């Protein structure tokens, strides 16, 4: 009797799940892109309106708001450099302590044990660590000073511009607040789009893997049972292995090859209904 290999059922289910995921996610991606376009158009419209209402003060104040943005970035970079420098200091102190302890231990036991290779190697290793840490400390210290200077300059520029264009800055604030809000909304939506793109990529990989697995299973069965096309169906509702695989195989081999040649990220939408149909032949209770 030609029972259907249970692994085929599992891989078909994997294939169908991946197909459903891809279709669902691609619809979501389309909607997310559409939302992004709507947000973009709406932002442009609102900013144009605000610009028309407020007039020339926007252009006068723009250098101040740009300088403010640069100062924020410089501040974050300065903070990161400070942390890096602190960490380098800690590592250096710990390395020096290790050397001191090793030397102390040697001195206190020098009358008992020989100046052996293992101890010498440990001390060398610890000394190298101290030298590396010193180098890191010097480099991160210099980098920290550089970043602090950049931040200081950026702050100074903000203050100068604030004094010079005080009235324009105050008057144009609604426009720049609106601009900030629009940018945050667009960034958030862009993040959502990237997340969906990654999920689609994963689902396509799962699809390709299932196809390749089906191809492997069918090759094994082919070797075990000789010519597949002679396998007879085992019953009216369960097609035999031959019927099942002759349905899958042309699709599986071409798609799996394409999937492999494309680094495993290839999806063939025309397989959808085909696989779902086979799924339902075996599991009638899945049908709604």
TrEMBL record:
It comes from the Eukaryota. Residues 8-42, 144-220 form a coiled coil. Pfam families: SH3BP5. Residues 251-261 have a biased composition (Low complexity). Residues 265-288 have a biased composition (Basic residues). GO terms for cellular component: cytoplasm. Residues 221-288 are annotated as: Disordered. One of its GO terms (biological process) is intracellular signal transduction. The keyword Coiled coil applies. Keywords: Coiled coil. GO terms for molecular function: protein kinase inhibitor activity. The keyword Cell inner membrane does not apply. Belongs to the SH3BP5 family. This is Putative btk-associated sh3-domain binding protein sab.
């Amino acid at each position: 009797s030609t029972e259907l290999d249970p692994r085929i059922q599992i891989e078909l289910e994997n294939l169908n799940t991946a197909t459903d995921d891809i279709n669902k996610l691609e619809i979501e991606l389309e909607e997310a892109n559409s939302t992004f376009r709507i947000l973009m158009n709406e932002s442009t419209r609102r900013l144009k309106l605000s610009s028309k209402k407020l007039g020339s003060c926007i252009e006068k104040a723009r250098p101040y708001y740009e300088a403010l943005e640069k100062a924020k970035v410089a501040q974050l970079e300065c903070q990161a450099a400070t942390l890096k420098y602190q960490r380098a200091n800690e590592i250096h102190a710990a390395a020096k302590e290790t050397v001191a302890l090793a030397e102390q231990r040697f001195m206190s036991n020098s009358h008992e044990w020989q100046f052996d290779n293992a101890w010498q190697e440990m001390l060398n290793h610890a000394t190298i660590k101290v030298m590396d840490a010193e180098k890191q400390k010097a480099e991160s210290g210099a980098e920290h000073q550089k970043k602090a200077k950049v931040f200081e300059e950026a702050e100074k520029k903000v203050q100068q511009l604030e004094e010079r264009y005080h009235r324009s800055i105050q008057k144009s604030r609604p426009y720049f607040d609106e601009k900030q809000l629009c940018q945050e909304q667009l960034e958030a939506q862009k993040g959502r789009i990237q997340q969906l793109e990654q999920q689609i990529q994963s689902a396509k990989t799962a699809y390709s893997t299932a196809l390749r697995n089906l191809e492997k299973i069918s090759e094994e069965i082919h070797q075990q049972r000789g010519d597949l096309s002679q396998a007879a169906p085992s019953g009216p509702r369960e097609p035999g292995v031959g019927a099942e695989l002759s349905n899958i195989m042309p699709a599986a081999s071409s798609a799996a090859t394409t999937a492999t040649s494309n680094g495993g990220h290839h999806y063939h939408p025309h397989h959808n209904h085909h696989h779902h149909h086979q799924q339902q032949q075996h599991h009638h209770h899945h049908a709604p």
